Amino acid sequence: MHIETQLVRSGMKRDVATGSITTPIYQASTFEHPRLGESTGYDYARTANPTRSALEEAIANLEGGRVGLAFASGMAAITSVLLLFKNGDHLVVSEDLYGGTYRVLSDILSEHGVTVTYVNTANIDEVNQAIQSNTKALFIETPTNPMMHVTDLERVIQIANDHALYTIVDNTFMSPYYQRPIELGADIVIHSASKYIGGHNDVVAGLVVTRCSELGEKIRFYQNAVGAILGPQDSWLLVRGMKTLGLRMEKHNENALKIAKWLTSRSEIEKVYYPGLETHPGHEVMKKQASGFGGMISFAVKDSEIVPFILEHVKIITFAESLGGVESLITFPARQTHADIPEEIRNRIGVTKCLLRFSVGIEHADDLIRDLEEVFDAYRK
Ligand SMILES: *Cc1c(COP(=O)(O)O)cnc(C)c1O
Questions:
Q1: Looking at per-residue confidence, does 115 or 146 come out higher?
Q2: How far does the signal peptide extend, from start to end residue (predicted)?
Q3: Catalytic residue among 26, 98, 118, 166
Q4: Is 259:52 a contact under the CB 8 Å cutoff?
Q5: Given the residues 14, 15, 42, 46, the one annotated as active site
Q6: To test ligand 1's pocket by mutation, which of 71, 98, 121, 197 has the most ligand atoms within 8 angstroms of CB?
Q7: What percent of the chain has pLDDT above 70?
């Protein structure tokens, strides 16, 4: 079955009693036991809720994994996965990764004795050199947030397998529509479902999918134990959002390519980071491991003075954090999403006061271009 069809069929045919075309929102915290020692499969909703189960099955199928789990946020998902590691363990992590993940690793996991080496995972030599005798996993974002470095998943998974490490991929930027790391051998895929999977800037949620059942059951145990679960209403919103994921991703991708090319032609712009551009160093790797390039563009302006002017004068594009929704959003990573990363590291990796991140929505591309063009022209005057 093609993924477009799989997406539309997510969460269907689960209500035998009424034949409802969508999975109902089971707003219940507990379920009656038929007899002593018997269960309908649902007991208490921290452990399982039918609406959440519909979502969890859907994401597991889409990513090609065995177990799917839905969490209260992307960070709840990431933190629950990181509970796999204990005092003395070491991780190799993509260096410009989501600021919240960096914060959990540097301010919380470190207190529990887990150490981390940050490398540019797009550079295979750096990955190899960072592995120590106590390394337990590689944690990859590709493309990275916000510098859009592309990691060759097949090659890093090979390295992980050679050293018996888990490969964990934060697949938020691509969504399963464009990239399915488990099919390439990754062990765990994580999503901030608040982004493309929900797709409408109206829900905060996280998802985890594992390649094998054993690892999935271990993380399910953590999910139930710590209670980092997604509620039924939000689970329903995600299933609903997923049905149009294919259409949305195609449009995000088409718009982003058009806008990236236009930005490249502008004198105000120093550099455009979009893996769909043939000049992007990760372009060929992207073509090999993903079926599209997504809707995220980062760009550096020549003059940092224009940054506040852009943020305060765009009309259609909204100045806000987050990404992956139908509405176009523009973010200033150094002051927002990545503010927790020390300035010296930020500058080294390129998250400077000239860098903006643009989550291209599904509006008409010409309207988005005109919005930016008017701001650039107004600034010049
Ligand atoms: C937003 C984001 C997260 C965190 O997800 P929340 O749902 O906001 O908790 C993690 N990784 C990436 C790549 C993100 O963009």
A1: 115
A2: none
A3: 98
A4: no
A5: 46
A6: 98
A7: 100
Ligand 1 pocket, residue 195 CB under 6 Å: yes
- Enter the tokens of residue 267: 């004198």
**What CATH number labels 3-242?**
3.40.640.10
13's enclosing H/E stretch is none
Supply the pTM of this predicted model. 0.96
Give the three-state DSSP class for 270: strand
pLDDT of residue 309: 96
On the CB side of 73, CA atoms within 13 Å amount to 7
Indicate which residue's Cα is closest to atom 1 of ligand 1.
192
> Quick check: 275 pLDDT over 80?
yes
Per-chain mean pLDDT for the chain: 96
Residue 239 has what pLDDT? 97
Q: Which residue has the higher pLDDT, 95 or 289?
A: 289
Task: Give the closest residue to 58 by CA, choosing from 13, 104, 96, 101.
Answer: 13
Of the candidates 83, 100, 85, the residue with the CA atom closest to the CA atom of residue 141: 100
Taking the C-alpha atoms of 331, 334, 336 and 340 in order, what is their torsion angle to the nearest 10 degrees?
Answer: 150
Alpha helices in the chain (DSSP H): 3-8, 50-63, 74-82, 99-103, 124-130, 153-162, 175-178, 213-226, 232-242, 245-264, 283-289, 306-313, 343-349, 365-380
- Residue-wise pLDDT for 45-77, tens only, equals 999 999 999 999 999 999 999 999 999 999 999
Which helix (H) or strand (E) segment holds residue 91: the answer is strand 90-94
**Tokens 């997923």, located at residue:** 242
A 10 A CB-CB count for 124 gives 16
Ligand 1 neighbourhood includes 220 CB (under 6 angstroms): no
Ligand 1 atom index nearest CA of 97: 13
Domain ranges in the chain with CATH number 3.40.640.10: 3-242
The residue whose C-alpha atom lies closest to atom 8 belonging to ligand 1 is 74
Question: What does the buried/exposed string (b/e) look like for 314-341 if buried means 16 or more CB atoms within 10 Å of the residue's CB?
Answer: beebbbbebbbbbebbbbbbbeebbeeb
Residue ranges, comma separated, of all CATH 3.90.1150.10 domains in the chain are 246-380
CATH topology of domain 246-380: Aspartate Aminotransferase, domain 1 (3.90.1150)
Measure 98 CA to ligand 1 centroid, in angstroms: 7
